């Protein structure tokens, strides 16, 4: 692929469909990427993972060069091709005017949840995306881990019964009880300690006749209701909910709920034993 961009800004842009190879991607990044925003290597690596997995397909989002041959849109995808060593097909636009750059990226972006609902028919796409992202961050012990459509779909397919159980039980109103951190903990618990998780969820919604040695559910409810949905962060709520669930399942009296990973790790081990 030659970078045969128009050399003036007065002509009309030229559109084409091209396969960009890793060597070509390296050359573009080295010689034609001097008018762009800062590169996010983490984002490029996520795209590269999708390419390596064979999930990348031709889409409407073009690689764009201006009239002087500078790359002005698509640097992360170009970098991902270089990282993955996988040639990929793109729409390519050459000869974009400087004025046109001022209105790039103005449309409202579709979220992962939007795409799961629109393209894949998931009724609660935004919750699937948020739960999958929570579980991925916990698994990697990395708060910067981001979700892709492919990864969210894979998580949903691998854990479909637990996802469906959680999504079928949640309310329709945004509240502490539909927070992604709590729902992710319930989903993990459903696979690890299913009966205890069902009782735990019932007690969380209706804390009547909860015994003192299972007070963790009350601690979690009081903590969550006092702070409101999402104010303490999704991952903190997730870890606290995992700890509360394990205390509840073990009938242990607790004074405070830790936000550490002990409960999460115990649920992961219990899930392995359940399988």
Short description:
By secondary structure, the protein is of the alpha+beta class. The chain is built from 13 helices and four strands.
Any overview of this molecule?
This protein has 275 residues and is α+β, with helices and mostly antiparallel strands. It has two domains: 14-101, Conserved hypothetical protein from pyrococcus furiosus pfu- 392566-001, ParB domain (Alpha-Beta Complex); 112-274, no CATH class. It contains 13 helices and four strands. It has a four-stranded mixed sheet with strand order 1-4-2-3. Strand 2 (63-66) and strand 3 form a beta hairpin. Helix 2 crosses helix 3. The longest helix is centred in the middle third of the chain and has 16 residues, at 125-140. The termini are far apart. Residues 1-9 have low confidence and may be disordered.
Mean pLDDT: 87
Total of DSSP H or I helical runs spanning 4+ residues:
13
Order of helices and strands: EHHEEHEHHHHHHHHHH
- Looking at the chains present, what oligomeric state does this protein adopt? single chain
**Widest β-sheet, arrangement of strands:** 1-4-2-3
Could you name the ranges where pLDDT drops below 50 across 5 or more consecutive residues?
Answer: 1-9
Give the strand content.
5-15%
Structural class: alpha+beta
> Helical residue percent?
40-55%
Key traits:
275 residues, alpha+beta, Conserved hypothetical protein from pyrococcus furiosus pfu- 392566-001, ParB domain, 2 domains, 4 strands, 53% helix, elongated
């Amino acid at each position: 692929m030659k970078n045969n961009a128009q050399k003036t800004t007065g002509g009309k842009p030229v559109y084409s469909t091209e396969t960009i190879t890793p060597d070509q991607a390296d050359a573009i990044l080295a010689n034609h990427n001097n008018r762009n925003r800062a590169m996010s290597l983490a984002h490029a690596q996520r795209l590269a993972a999708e390419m390596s997995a064979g999930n990348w397909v031709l889409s409407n989002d073009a690689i764009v060069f201006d009239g002087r041959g500078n790359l002005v849109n698509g640097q992360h995808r170009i970098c991902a091709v270089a990282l993955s060593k996988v040639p990929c097909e793109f729409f390519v636009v050459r000869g974009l005017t400087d004025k046109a750059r001022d209105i790039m990226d103005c449309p409202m972006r579709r979220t992962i949840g939007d795409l799961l609902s629109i393209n894949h028919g998931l009724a609660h796409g935004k919750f699937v995306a948020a739960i999958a992202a929570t579980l991925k961050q916990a698994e990697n012990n990395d708060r910067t881990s981001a979700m892709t459509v492919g990864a969210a779909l894979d998580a949903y397919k691998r854990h479909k019964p637990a996802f469906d159980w959680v999504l079928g039980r949640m309310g329709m109103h945004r509240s502490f009880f539909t927070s992604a951190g709590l729902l992710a903990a319930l989903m993990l618990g459903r696979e690890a300690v299913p009966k205890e998780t069902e009782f735990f969820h019932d007690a969380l919604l209706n804390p009547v006749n909860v015994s003192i040695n299972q007070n963790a559910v009350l601690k979690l409810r009081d903590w969550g209701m006092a702070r409101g949905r999402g104010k303490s962060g999704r991952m903190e709520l997730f870890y606290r909910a995992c700890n509360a669930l394990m205390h509840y399942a073990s009938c242990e009296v607790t004074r405070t709920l830790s936000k550490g990973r002990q409960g999460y790790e115990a649920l992961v081990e219990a899930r392995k034993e359940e399988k």
